[in-house]
Amino acid sequence: MRAAVLRTNIRSSGGRLWAAASAITISVTFIVAGMLLADSLQRGIEAQAAEEIGGADIVLEPYALYEEGEEAVDQLVSDLTALDSVAEVDIRGEGFPSLQLILEEEHREDPDAAQEARDEVQGLIDDDTALFTQQEYIDQWIELRTGGATALQFVLGGFGAIAAFVSAIVIANTFQVVVASRRKTLGLLRAVGAGSAQLRSAALGEGALLGAAASVAGILLGWVAAWGLTVSRADLFGGGADLLPAQLTPAPALIGVLIGVGVTVFASAWPAVRSGRTSPMEALRPADLSSGGAAVPMVRTLAGLLFAVPGFGLTVYAAASEHYSDPVTGLAMPLLGIAGGMLTFFGTLLLGRLMIPVLVDRLGRLVGAVTGLRPSAPLAGRTARQSPGRTTATASALLVGVTLVVTFTVGAATTQAFLEEEFSDQGMIDQVLAVVLLLVAVSVVVAIIGVSNTMALSVMERRREAALLRALGSTRGTMGRMVSIEALLLALVALLIGTALGTFFGWAGVSSLIALEEVSIGVAMPWGRLALIWCAAAGAALLAAWLPARSFAQTPPAQGLAG
Q1: Where are the beta strands (DSSP E) in 76-183?
Q2: Domain segments of the chain: what residues?
Q3: Which of 558, 499, 492, 496 is nearest to 525 (CA)?
Q4: Structure-model confidence comparison of residues 315 and 149, the more confident one
C-alpha cells in the first residue's frame, strides 16, 4: 500500500516538485564543485612538491648563511659533499636556494643508517639552518600552499549552504501547497484503507526520492563545472597554482547526497505530518484549498521579538564600540556583530508571517490607486493576504538572497568611502565584490524558482476563483495581470525589507571591523547598484510569473466551476 501511495503522489505532483528540486541541485553543485576544486589543487601541490624536492632525502634551508656571504654557503656545500653518507648536493631555487642532499644507496634503504646520516648533517649546520626530511619538506610545502584551496572550499561550501537554506524554504512551501492540492486524493486513499503512517511515510519517501535525484544531478553538474575549470587552468587560487583535472571521488558524492536528501526530507517533514492527518471525509468536501487568513500564533510573534530585539541591540553595540574585542567576553566585535545580525534576521523571518501579508495587501492597494491597475492590483494583494503561510514563505526565500546581496553591496561601498584617501585604486574591492555578488546571486535564483513554483501552485488551487472571475466578466488580460502583479508585490516587499536589513548589516559589519576611537563610519548608499538589484529582482519575478499568469488567464469558466 505504501508503494502504491508513493506512486500516486509522484504522478499527481507532475513537474511541480521537480521544479523545486532544481534548487537543491544548485546548492549541491556549489558544494561538490568546491570540494573537487580543493582536491584538484591539493593533488597539484603534492605533484609540485615532489618535483621541487627532486628525489632528495634531506633538504637544508641555510638562509642565515647567505647573510654571511656566498663563501659560507660554498664551505657548507664542500663539507656536506665530503661526508661518506652524502652522494650528491644539489642547489635549487632562486634568491636564497635550498640545499638538497641525496644519500648513498646503503643510507637510503636502512632507516638506522639514514638517521645516522641526518645526525652527521645536523652536526655541520648551525641552529639557524632548517633541516627537513623528504616527507617533512613535502608536508611543509603543502601546508604553506593549501590556504587557497581551503578558502575556496569554505566559500563555495558557504554559499552552497545558503542556497540549501533557501531551497529548504522553497521545498517546504511547495510540499505544503502540493499536500493541500491532494486533499481529495489523500481522503480517497484513507477511505480505501491507507493508514496515517503510510501517508506520512509516502510523503517522506517522495521527499527522499526527490532529494536523491536532485543530488545526483547536482553532483554531476559540480563535477563537470570543476573539471571544466581545472582543464582550462583557471587561476582560481592566485599565483598560477597547478590544477590537475578534477576527479569525482566518493567523499564529495556522499556529502552531496546526504545534504540533498537531508534538506529535502527535513523540508517535507511537516507537510508529511499534515498529509497523515487527512480524514477520509476530505474526499467528499468541496475543493477549497485556500488556508484562509489564519491568525498568527502568539508564540511565533513572541519568539520573533525575543530573537530580533536582542539581536538588533547586539549588532548596534558591536558597530558602535571603539574596541576591537568585547571587554567582558573577550570576543571580537565582528563575531558579536555577526551573531547579532543572525539573531536579528532569524527574528525578522519569524515576524514575517505578521508583516509580509499585510504589506503585500497594502502595497497592492497603493499600486492600484497610483497606477490605475484596478481591480488587478488590489485583488492580487488581497489574495496574497488570504494565504499568509504561502505568501510569507515565498517572500522569505527571496528575502534571504536580497538581504545578502544588499549587505555585501552596501558594505563594499561603505568600505570604499572610508578608505577613499588611503586607496586610490579600489579595483581589488570591486573584483572581490563582483565574485561575492555572483555567488550570492545563486540564492536569489533559487528564490525566483520558488516564486515561479509557488505561483504555479497558487494558480492550480485557485481554479474556482479564476472561473468565477471569468464568469463575472473579468478578461484574460485582467486575470494574467493579477498573477503577475502578485509576484511583483511579493518581490517588492522582499526588496523593501531586504534593502533595509542589508543596509543596516552592511554598515554594522564595516563599523565593527574598523573599531577606532573618534572615528565615525557613515553608511554609503550605492544607489546605482541598488537600483540595478531592484530592477533585476522585479524583472525576474515577472518572468517567473509569466507561465502561471498565462495558465490562470486561460482557465475556462465552465471547467473551473465544474472541478
Answers
A1: 86-92, 98-103, 130-133
A2: 1-53+139-285, 63-128, 352-563
A3: 499
A4: 315
